[in-house]
Amino acid sequence: MPTVHLPSRAFVTVDGPEAEHFLQNLITPDLAAFAAGEAKPGALLTPQGKILFDFLISRTGDGFRLECRTEVADDLAKRLTIYRLRAKVSIAVQEQGLVAVSWGDDSSASQSDSSVRDLRFTEPVWRNYEALPVATADEPAWTALRAESGIAESGADFALSDVFPHDVLYDQNGGVGLKKGCFVGQEVVSRMQHRGTARRRVMIARSDDALPVSGTEITVNGRPIGTLGSSADGAGIAIMRIDRVKDALDAGHDILAGDARMTLTVPAWARYTLPETTAAD
Questions:
Q1: Whole domain around residue 260: which residue ranges?
Q2: Do both 154 and 227 map to the same domain?
Q3: Does any domain span residue 281?
């Protein structure tokens, strides 16, 4: 059972009798049927519908814990405070977040009162927040798991304010409540959903060559069709223009990240498919 400690994480807590109502009308996931012991992806969007902050959210006593990157925790808390107005909630930052992630056939053995299941993964993955089990692997093992599962995170795989929820599959993994009421950026997200206009999607990149650094353009005949994110053990996260991927596959052209030839596949759990015809630019 691999267990990895993630030191660069922090918590923003939102507590109080109106915490759920406050967040439900602000962030992307639907909290109405959200059970204790679960962590689901979520985001606070810009009014234009792009991801301003991404996080994993889980229930606490009378509120919620938003696990995010340490470097954005203060800004996330400040942005939430702007929206608080007269809501009966308290917002605080815990900068020394303690996070251990465990997975594998016997990962349920790591479950405790302070652990939650990471719902981004189809197989059990547990995030432990207090009683941390001993680390038995390093961060590249966690990166490899994310890459093989098609799970993108900001910083490592995409820049904030640069992608829509559909681009990183939040419409497919519970990260956005498409049937709930209004939230910041909801009109843009709903329009993309109903019109089927999402053209950028996360794909899994694999190569027998060494994959280059995160941020490297993925090209076909010198034309960019996507961007490589983090990678490990020959697999990486790629955010791709799926219409251009389809064109490249149909034509049998090489898909390159730097000098590395790669193959691209849709994550097994995702429900989108490559377009039948080329979408208009």
A1: 199-265
A2: no
A3: no
The residues near 38 (Cβ < 8 Å, ≥ 6 apart) are: 58, 59, 116, 117, 119
Q: How many residues does the chain have?
A: 281
* H or E element that contains 263: strand 263-265
pLDDT tens string 21-73: 999 999 999 999 899 999 999 999 999 999 999 999 999 988 999 999 999 99
> Are 157 and 229 part of one and the same domain?
no
CB 220 within 8 A of CB 253: yes
Clarify whether residues 211 and 83 are in a common domain. Answer: no
| Cβ-based neighbours of 203, under 8 Å, separated by 6 or more | 150, 226, 238, 239, 240, 242, 245, 264, 265, 266, 267
Angle at 94 between CA 135 and CA 70, to 5 degrees: 65
Provide the number of structural domains found in the chain.
Answer: 2
Give the CA diameter of the chain: 59
Q: Which among 247, 206, 203 is positioned nearest to 226, based on CA atoms?
A: 203
Q: Within a 10 A sphere around the Cβ of 85, how many other Cβ atoms? A: 8
Element housing 251 (H / E): helix 242-251
Averaged pLDDT score across all residues of the chain:
93
User: How far is CA 57 from each of CA 11, 76, 206, 226, 236, rounded to the nearest angstrom?
Assistant: 9, 13, 30, 28, 25
